Amino acid sequence: MFSRKLFGALAGVAVAALSASGAMAQAKDKIKVGFIYVGPVGDHGWSYQHDQGRQAMVKALGDKVETTFVESVPEADSERAIEQLARTGHDLIFTTSFGFMEPTLKVAKKYPKIKFEHATGFKRAPNVSTYAAKFHEGRYIIGQIAGRMTKSGVIGYVGAFPIPEVIAGINAFYLGAQSVNPDVKIKVVWANTWYDPAKEGDAAKALLDQGVDMLAQHTDSPAPIQAAEARGKFGFGQASDMERFAPKAQLTAIIDNWSDYYIARAKAVLDGTWKSEDTWGGLAENMVIMSPYKNMPDDVKKMAEETEAAIKSGKLNPFKCPVYGQDGKEIECKGNGALSDEQVLGMNFYVKGIEDKIPQ
Amino acid sequence: MRFELMPRTSVSPVARALAPVVAFIISFLIAGFVIWLMGRSPIAAFDVYVLQPLSDPWSLQELLVKATPMALIAIGLSYCFRANLWNIGAEGQYVMGAVLGGWLALNTHGTEAGFWVLPLMLTLGIIGGALYGLIPAFLKTRFGVNEILTSLMLVYVAQLALDYLVRGPWRDPKGFNFPQSVTFDPSATLPPILESGRVHYGFVFAVIAVLVTAVILGRTLFGYRLKLTGDAPRAARFAGFNSSATTMTVFAVSGGLAGLAGISEVSGQIGQLQPSISPGYGFTAITVAFLGRLNPLGILVAALVVALTFIGGESAQILLKLPLDLTQAFQGILLLCVLAADALVSYRIRLVTRGGGK
């Protein structure tokens, strides 16, 4: 009797100890976090903002995290750099460009215990999450501002590559502009680069020469907005607040805020609660932030703030149906009152009114 | 007062052999000094840059992966450069090899096509690069157009052609409209030499190219003709060697090897076609060819050394948190030192104090 009781108690302790040790194996006291950047940390755009997120993580989590980054990693030759992070004891690895998708998956397969986070991709695995931001929400707002502010009636856009994210950005920008100025025209120039200040500046100047007085950009350096500043025209910051490069020209900037996400994901690994997920955050989730509205009349500023609030609350979707294609035909509405996420993520058509042609 | 470079009357083979070694030591001293100025340990940096990659099997294998395309392209370029023909467009020939070979991979995708796909792909890669290399050669021999300009400009044409294909007709229909092709089938994938490794058969091709080139240059009339065309074009013409035929041949060989590098990289390493399939291998290979003094074995060594600086640079970022700019500066210093050492072995500096100069 006694012995059976004792045995039962012992077994209970053993079970408790087992489950405790199971939990211990999951949670960690300290982790190493690695980052792969496609550009230099000093681009003041895309990679710069990811590095800001890394620094915010270090600030928030202190000595619980040790971080490493590798910058300017060519997409065609990134597998080695990712694997090098995996081999040097990193627990969580962020690969921050679309072109790192296949290499990330290949390395993740070899290192199943390490967690990977791939930005802007669409392929996941048990240890690979994806994350991206709804930049097009911000682009709708800057489109409205440009539509109201333009005097020439022609607004310009420096695009990087004709991939869905950039196309969706142009469409959202133009739909915003059209919503306040139905006759507005848009000119698009493709720089065919994410980061090349000289090329981006040339593209911007070509647009300004054609009479554009509002300049939006989807490339990472401050060169386009600086060109606008030099000509006394207006522009919008990309990825980071570019006010210091163009104090008179910047109306606002669409800031990529990865900090909250990076801190949350590192915490999840520390707590042992990390799961493979797909995150697509916008203004509401603070992943996209508008820098202060400046250099514009009060009524335009008020409109921008109202639009921002409406998008945040979910009242307004930049791609609310009906959306018309370039040929004037209505695009099938696959989402709930707006285009579906898949339609936006894979967008390869221009909306009605854009006279440019998508290079293919 | 000015400096003049005077050719040395005799150069000892020992000095010639030691020149690159001395160049290495000097460039490491300079880089070490910079690292010391940054408040870091130069010894730790040397360990991470050089010793660790050379002592770890994984890094050694990565070294071969990285060196493969550069070695293949540079071997090809050495044919051109020996004949004093300046093929600057290997990057474009690399891309066109990948495009033509990739075409077959995409057309057999999802079919029961068998073992013949891969050899045919590689052959198409060679043909694609060779034909593309023949364009500047033809323009030069037929119309006397400068091959430096045409070969360089054709790089952009090739890159934009690939860009067009992966955004348009060759785009993966299930890829959310992102500019990339489907991933190649196993039948169109160049396998790794060791099952679990990353070194693919492209490295074997590079070694074969080195050996064959060594034999051609040392033992054949064609190799002799090549040297003569480069060193003394008039003498070559008097000897009855046709310089047009030589031009066409070396551009075809050079383009073919660049094309082979392209299709090997795409099918063995990347696994699909995408807008960017090279971090500038075709241009780095020019450096590699000269670092290796246009000697086949030298080129193989030079490719490994350049690969080491890339991999060491990544390790330095990860382990020492040293910036990438330092790696790039180091690559520049290394090249300068090697070229300077080479020049100083063959020439001596003379200080001219009076007359002559303006």
From TrEMBL, chain A:
Coiled coil (UniProt feature): none
Signal peptide (from-to): 1-25
InterPro entries in the record: ABC-Purine-Binding, Peripla_BP_I, PnrA-like
SUPFAM superfamilies per UniProt: Periplasmic binding protein-like I
Domain ABC transporter substrate-binding protein PnrA-like: 31-306
CDD domains assigned: PBP1_BMP-like
GO (cellular component) term, any one: plasma membrane
Membrane-crossing residue ranges in chain numbering: none
Assigned keywords, A-Z: Signal
Top-level taxon in the UniProt lineage: Bacteria
One Pfam family named in its UniProt record: Bmp
Name of protein: BMP family ABC transporter substrate-binding protein
UniProtKB/TrEMBL annotation, chain B:
Pfam families: BPD_transp_2
GO cellular component, one term: plasma membrane
This protein's record includes keyword Cell membrane: yes
GO molecular function: transmembrane transporter activity
Alphabetically ordered keywords of this record: Cell membrane, Membrane, Transmembrane, Transmembrane helix
Superkingdom of the organism of origin: Bacteria
Keyword Transmembrane helix carried by entry: yes
Localization annotation: Cell membrane
Transmembrane segments: 21-43, 63-81, 93-110, 116-135, 147-166, 199-217, 238-261, 273-292, 299-320, 326-345
InterPro entries recorded: ABC_transp_permease (IPR001851)
Bilayer topology term: Multi-pass membrane protein
Family matches, as PANTHER family: ABC TRANSPORTER, PERMEASE PROTEIN, GUANOSINE ABC TRANSPORTER PERMEASE PROTEIN NUPP
Identification of the protein by name: ABC transporter permease
Organism encoding this protein: Microvirga makkahensis
